[in-house]
Every structure is written in C-alpha cells, then in structure tokens.
Amino acid sequence: MAPQTERGFRKLRIIQTVLSLLVLALATALKVVVILYLQGKNDQLERAKVSNTALQLQNQILIQRISERDIVHGENLYYFSCGKRSWEAAEQFCVSRGSHLTSVTSVEEQNFLYKKANGTYYWIGLSNQNDSGWQWTDGTPYNEAKSKEFWAIGKPSSDNDNNCVHFWANTQKSWNNFLCIFSSQFICKWSCESSGMCRNI
How many CB atoms lie within 10 A of CB 185? Predict the structure, then answer.
C-alpha cells in the first residue's frame, strides 16, 4: 500500500475516533440535561405539592375563623373581629352593621365573652368620653357596683387618656381602660329578637 494511502487511512481513523468521541460526549451531555430537566420537574412538583398543602391549611384556618366570628349566645349575636381598629373606628364598624360594640349586662355574659376572647385584646362598648362617666355605646345603663367584678385589679386607672375599655386577660376580672386610638380586635353585639339576624346563623 502506498504511503499516501496509509496516511489517508490513519487520518480517516483519527477523524472517525474524534467523531465517535464527540457523539459519545454529546449523548452523555444530552443524558445529563434530560436528567437535570426531570429533576427540575420533580422539584417543581414537590414545591407545588408543598404550596398546595400550605394553601389548604390556610383555607381551613380561614373557614374556621369565619365560622367562629358570628356566635349566637343566649339572646344575642356576637361578632368577634379578626381585623384591628381604634375604639371609635370599631364602634363605627358595628354601627354601620346595625349594632354597637358589646355591652356586658351579667356575670354569665362576662364569663362567655372573656373565655371566648381567650386573653386576646377586644374592644367592648364601654368608654368615659369627655369625663362624662362610664357609658355603654348601646345605651345600657352602667352598673358601677356590678362592674367591679369585671375590672382588672387596679382598674380603671385614673389616667385621663385611657378612656376606652377592652378585654386583656383570660379571667373574669379582665377589663382594662386604655388609649382609644390603640388598634385592637373588637366585639359587636346584636339582640336576636330586634335584629332578626340569629335565624341565619
């Protein structure tokens, strides 16, 4: 065989070998890309599952909150807010829905409300605006003797700026007078008989 022909065959073999190696490298790279792509899809799927589980949990909490916000107790309907407002804004919210911030007329009602509040701050409808004495927004007469059972120890304080009342402890003696501009959750109250709202709960 002529030397030129032999050199030509050698070059051809080298080219074949290089091409084979390139094809093998490309196939390996493609395999790696496919594996990474599938892993990425699996990661996305796992993230979607986690996100879906979190969303379901949030929905359950929201449904529970909605079902717990409107409560009929005795002859009244109570709305326990999730959002927070100043005392005046909370009263305006209740009035816009045909009610007032809740009054407390008995030990039994106080026990129901403070247990439901469970230590969370909730505005109630008692205030001492313009030093006119303690008054309920719904017109219920304030009974100073009976209310002594409900004020927290050392309350009401004599601070002139603390003119609005909220629950602040998980105990019968749970009333605290505080700044009316403080943002707190709140409780609205309707009479079942006069409002007719309890039939829908």
Answer: 18
Domain's final residue, options 68, 99, 122: 68
40 contacts: CB under 8 Å, gap ≥ 6: none
- State the amino acid at position 128 in one-letter form: N
109-120 burial: b if 16+ Cβ within 10 Å, else e: bbebbbebbeee
pLDDT tens, 160-170?
889 999 999 89
> Cα(first)–Cα(last) distance of the chain, in Å?
103
Considering the domain architecture, whether residues 78 and 40 belong to the same structural domain is answered as no
- pLDDT over threshold 80, residue 24: no
What does the CA dihedral 105, 107, 108, 112 come to, rounded to 10 degrees? 90
Q: Same structural domain for residues 86 and 13?
A: no
